[in-house]
Amino acid sequence: MPPKLFGSDMNQGVRAVLLTAKALAVPVDLIDVNVYTEEHIEEELLKVNPDYTIPTLVDGEFVSWNTHAILGYLVNKYGEDDSLYPKDPEKKDQVEQKLFFESDTLCPRVNSVIQAIIVENEKEIRTEKISAITESYMLLDGFLENKNFLTGDSLTIADLCCVATVSTATVITPISTEKYPNLSHWYRTCKNLNYYEETNGVGLNNLDALVELKLGRPRTKELCE
Predict the structure, then answer these.
(1) Does pLDDT of 225 surpass 80?
(2) What residue stretches are annotated with the GST C-terminal domain (predicted)?
(3) Are the C-beta atoms of 19 and 70 separated by less than 8 Å?
């Protein structure tokens, strides 16, 4: 029986898990849970995760509900090698640096906007929130100087996790190729992964449509800059 993954494909953490599972050729059974509404509580999720957060992975008797922990678990258990999450202390440190950047800086800035639109029904995105996201773009562009991927020449879970969040950010403000050439190149490289559209693109499109619905109008270029 494949692991169960509770979550919505509109959520970047869930998409990071789907990307990683596909990279490892590990099938997962996605159980859709909308944590943005209290109209329906998924009792099965509540039983295994009292915190009621997504993504939550159930693999047999094992349960994990932290995105980064789930990614590490999948590689450690199912990976044929450690290329996606190296065991070498220095290489592992580089991966974890970028994972912590995603969780401590990038993700909160993106979630702040998505939450405001979807849950709080805000119709305008404050300038300071857009600036916080573009500052994250600038930092990522610096990380990627002379690199194909975030930690060097090889794809890791840092890339899979960050591309899920960066792609979510592009729903709010696109990546300028002129301002962030390294980030733009990396983003295109990630989008060219043969499993990207299936695992990240579909959910991203669903989120994009929901954001436009909540805003009550198509997002304009001015709104995104």
Answers:
(1) no
(2) 88-222
(3) no
Strand 29-32 relative to strand 4-7: parallel, antiparallel, unpaired?
Answer: parallel
In order, the DSSP letters of 180-216 are -HHHHHHHHHHHTSTTHIIIIIHHHHHHHHHHHHHHT
As given in the structure block, the two tokens for residue 175 are: 């990546």
Query: Could you give the CA distance from residue 173 to residue 182 in angstroms, rounded to a whole number?
Result: 17
Contacts of 75 (CB under 8 A, 6+ apart): 20, 24, 82, 84, 85, 157
Q: Which two tokens stand for residue 83?
A: 């290329």
Q: For CA atoms 10, 14, 16, 19, give the dihedral sign.
A: negative
- What is the token pair recorded at 73? 């678990």
Q: In this structure, are strands 4-7 and 62-64 parallel, antiparallel, or unpaired?
A: unpaired
- Residues 48-88 pLDDT 10s: 999 989 999 999 999 999 999 999 999 999 999 999 999 99
pLDDT of residue 216: 83
